[in-house]
């Protein structure tokens, strides 16, 4: 199976290294889930992209109480779109909704078999109301 790692800005060596790190982390912390966040936005940034999350919290708790607080440039009216990524095969990407499922269940369903990470790609959707006020400001109306 040929994997195009470059599509996600990873080399094959980086992915193999991530798998080794993930396996060691999972061995030492069997009750935690390793998560890698990829921010795909020109406005949003994060200082921290790797998380080791307790497997007994819900996915919505992780997004609301951890991830949203770490995102720099997130406006209160913004909506996040979250995709899970698998580097194997066709580089599959699946949109995932913020729900009350346990993070360990999300991990088991969507983990990347090449790295054993739950890879989440975060994008930002701006509401029209916020965009309209920004355009008004920029155009001088």
Write a short abstract of this structure.
This protein has four helices and seven strands.
How would you describe what is shown here?
There is one protein chain. With 141 residues, this protein is of the alpha+beta class. The protein has helices at 12-28, 59-70, 103-110, 128-139, and strands at residues 32-39, 45-46, 50-54, 71-72, 79-85, 93-96, 118-125. A 5-stranded mixed sheet has the order 3-1-7-5-6. The longest helix has 17 residues, at 12-28.
Please work out how many helical segments DSSP would assign: 4
User: What does the radius of gyration come to?
Assistant: 17 Å
Helix fraction by DSSP (H/I, runs of at least 4): 25-40%
Low-confidence sequence ranges: 136-141
The termini sit apart by 56 Å
| Range of strand content | 25-35%
Q: Which features does this protein show?
A:
141 residues, single chain, disordered C terminus, alpha+beta, two-stranded antiparallel sheet, 4 helices
């Amino acid at each position: 199976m040929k994997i195009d790692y470059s599509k996600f800005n990873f080399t094959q060596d980086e992915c193999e290294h991530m798998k080794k790190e993930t396996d060691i982390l999972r061995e030492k912390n069997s009750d935690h889930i390793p998560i890698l966040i990829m921010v795909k936005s020109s406005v949003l940034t994060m200082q921290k992209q790797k998380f080791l999350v307790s497997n007994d919290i819900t996915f919505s708790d992780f997004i609301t109480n951890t991830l949203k607080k770490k995102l720099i440039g997130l406006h209160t009216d913004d909506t996040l779109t979250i995709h899970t990524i698998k580097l194997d095969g066709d580089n599959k990407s699946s949109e995932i909704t913020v729900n009350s499922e346990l993070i360990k269940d999300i991990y088991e369903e969507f983990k990347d078999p090449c790295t054993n990470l739950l890879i989440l790609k975060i994008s930002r959707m701006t509401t029209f109301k916020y965009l309209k006020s920004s355009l008004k400001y920029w155009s001088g109306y």
